[in-house]
Amino acid sequence: MKRGRDTKPHIGIFGRRNIGKSSLINTLAGHEVAIVSDIAGTTTDPVKKSIEIPRLGPVVLIDTAGIDDQGELGEKRIAKTKEALSQVDLAILLIAHNTFEDAEKNLIRDFQKAGLPFVIIHNKSDEEALDTDLSRVLEDRFNVPVLDFSSLRPDKLEDVIRIMYETMPESAYTKRPLVGDLISYGDTVLLITPIDIEAPEGRMILPQVQVIRDVLDHDGICVVCKEREVDAYIKKMHPKPVLAITDSQVFPKADAAVPKEIPLTSFSIVLARQKGDFENYLKGTPEISRLKQGDRVLILESCTHHVSCDDIGRVKIPRWLNNFTGKNLSFDVVSGLGAMPGPVTDYAMVIQCGGCMITRKQLHNRLKPALDAGIPVTNYGMAIAWVHGIYHRAIAPFTGKMGDRGDYL
């Protein structure tokens, strides 16, 4: 199986309380990274552990609360466990003592509904071996690997890793390049990166770093400057860049400074094409012009960061949308992968950030409820380009045409 570059695959460990989920994580890690206790319910919320597993490479293991938790608090823990399904690329269902009942059946139903690949591991084989009839029934019914295992005597650890490797979907590893498929050997890419109050002290923001690495990986050359230096640099730059990428916040300045014969887009749109639902963004973005007075807009900011006084998601995008539409819109912002503030059907539009901190699967699962409900979705950079009248130019590097501007037809 070919492995490409991408965000680490996420593997969720699911099962009843005190079934050995944390012990399995420690066994896979080769040292104690998760708390192990004989007391049922030690793990109360999903906990992420970054480790490296032979053959699989760097992965994130998610240790979840027991699916048989009880009481009002237990129901909330189970809900948190099920929320983790949208974040994982592969699920491991742990069972023990040959117990496979409604709790396990319901969880597998959730796996199947989410289109989530999974394997079944019968843990604690040192106490009771897996019944061959149960093993056969599970394999036949669900068409998945079933393995007998003991975290205390992990002589079958290689078998566990093998079935994880074989079941892990290729999409968890592979991805399209950010811009590598748009450039050739030795091409120059101009990156316009404002240094403002939101720029971290002494370093670049993650999307900028990711694009620089992608250009270098594809044998290109990066030139990085602030928006104030673009005019002067382009005049003397030779050869001209084959592509310019700007921070979305300075799109109008970049549009004016970069000659029309040079393709221009933004870091956020580059991410939208790589890991977002780009086709649905293309369909949804024009719906900005159809927003009505009092419409609610949901802004999904999938990373967490210090909020500045001129924050892009909380301040600038709402201001730009209100000014562009001439309507008084209301906005809700959800940070990280937290729960929605209400039914997604309450919103007229969803605007997703670039998603540099999450996996492609997490981002698509985040948007799925809106798409299923027929609610238009777009992306930070594409929304910003639309309200500033430079949308067609901004998407042209990926669609191959400029619309009314005509420069790249």
Q: Count of DSSP helices? A: 14
Low-confidence stretches: 1-6, 39-44, 402-409
Shape: globular
Which strand order do you get reading across the main beta sheet? 2-3-1-4-5-6
Distance between the termini: 39 Å
How many β-strand stretches? 14
Q: Roughly what is the average pLDDT, rounded to an integer? A: 87
In short:
By secondary structure, the chain is of the alpha/beta class.
Walk me through the structure.
This protein has 409 residues and is of the alpha/beta class. It has 3 domains: 10-172, Rossmann fold, CATH 3.40.50; 180-270, Rossmann fold, CATH 3.40.50.11420; 276-387, Rossmann fold (3-Layer(aba) Sandwich). Helix content is 35%, strand content 18%. The chain has 14 helices and 14 strands. It has helices spanning 21-29, 71-83, 102-113, 132-142, 157-167, 206-217, 230-236, 251-257, 267-275, 278-284, 312-325, 360-372, 380-387, 391-399; strands at 10-15, 47-53, 57-63, 90-96, 118-123, 146-148, 188-192, 221-225, 243-246, 264-266, 296-301, 330-335, 349-352, 377-379. The strands form 3 sheets. A 6-stranded mixed sheet has the order 2-3-1-4-5-6, with helices on both faces. Helix 11 packs parallel to helix 13 (380-387) and helix 13 (380-387) crosses helix 14. It is globular, with a radius of gyration of 24 Å. The two termini are 39 Å apart. Residues 1-6, 39-44 and 402-409 have low confidence and may be disordered.
